[in-house]
């Protein structure tokens, strides 16, 4: 480590402090709200602004590579935690900056299929509101859904085979009068009957499983397709509306912003209320009341 112009200079790996994270995220939130965060990443001038802000406020000579690396870390946190929080039994503690697990059995089942999530049981993630706002994504149709689809396919296949077995015609009875006898399907020997059942179960089980897995796979692939985004309210409009609410704390504003930018309906509900009721309604939405 060397010094230049009074600033700490680092090469390679950089340890980020809370103040450095705050300086970086302040810039990213501002430019995210301005539409500078595209599907292809940040526009070049955002990195310039981020580097300058961290340098000036924290007296650390960071580079664009440092900022890009930190953004990857934030994106990883948001991806893993975002998936966790879509499941029942887990929520985020805003005060302790930690995951709250209400159902230990559900957690054990989840990390059994998602090994990378295990370390987040006790991990402290500060600035979650800003991170989730900037790096959030849709977490529908995960690999768990495909696995569940395959299991459902097996259940369907087994039931089809059982139904077929229960309804397989037996040999016609000759104990009654000949006038009541009605010809049935050709009689099968026990060997042929078992062979026919085996062919049916194998063929139809594979058919049912492949159909169900195909549907689950299509759901999973659909989540990765580029889809036309529905028309949403302008982030600047939402942010301006929140700033206009008297005495709304900064953290509450960010939490509300995160909710409203993901739901046009909620923003419409907010704007339908008189100004003196908006703050109370928002506090209810973010769980403060």
UniProtKB/TrEMBL annotation:
This is Myb/SANT-like domain-containing protein. It comes from the Eukaryota. It comes from Urochloa decumbens. InterPro entries: Myb/SANT-like_dom. Residues 164-195 are annotated as: Disordered. Residues 169-179 have a biased composition (Low complexity). Residues 15-110 form the Myb/SANT-like domain.
């Amino acid at each position: 480590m060397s010094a230049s112009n009074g600033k700490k200079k680092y090469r390679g790996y950089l340890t980020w402090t809370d103040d450095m994270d705050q300086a970086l995220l302040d810039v990213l939130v501002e430019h995210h709200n301005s539409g500078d965060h595209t599907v292809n990443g940040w526009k070049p001038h955002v990195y310039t602004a981020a580097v300058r802000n961290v340098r000036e406020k924290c007296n650390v000579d960071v580079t664009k590579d440092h900022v890009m690396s930190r953004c990857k870390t934030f994106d990883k946190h948001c991806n893993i935690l975002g998936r966790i929080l879509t499941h029942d039994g887990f929520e985020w503690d805003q005060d302790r900056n930690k995951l709250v697990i209400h159902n230990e059995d559900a957690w054990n089942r989840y990390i059994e299929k998602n090994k990378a999530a295990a370390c987040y049981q006790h991990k402290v993630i500060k600035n979650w509101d800003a991170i989730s706002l900037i790096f959030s994504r849709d977490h529908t149709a995960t690999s768990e859904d495909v696995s569940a689809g395959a299991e459902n396919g097996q259940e369907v296949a087994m039931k089809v085979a059982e139904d077929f077995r229960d309804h397989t015609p037996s040999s016609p009875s000759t104990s009654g009068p000949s006038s009541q006898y009605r010809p049935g399907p050709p009689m099968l020997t026990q060997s042929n009957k078992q062979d026919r059942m085996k062919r049916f179960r194998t063929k139809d089980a594979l058919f049912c499983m492949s159909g169900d897995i195909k549907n689950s796979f299509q759901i999973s692939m659909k989540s990765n397709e580029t889809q036309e985004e529905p028309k949403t309210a302008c982030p600047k409009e939402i942010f301006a509306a929140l700033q206009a609410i008297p005495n709304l704390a900064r953290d509450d504003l960010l939490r509300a912003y995160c909710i409203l930018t993901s739901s046009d309906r909620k923003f419409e509900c907010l704007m339908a209320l008189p100004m003196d009721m908006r703050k109370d309604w928002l506090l209810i939405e973010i769980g403060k009341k």
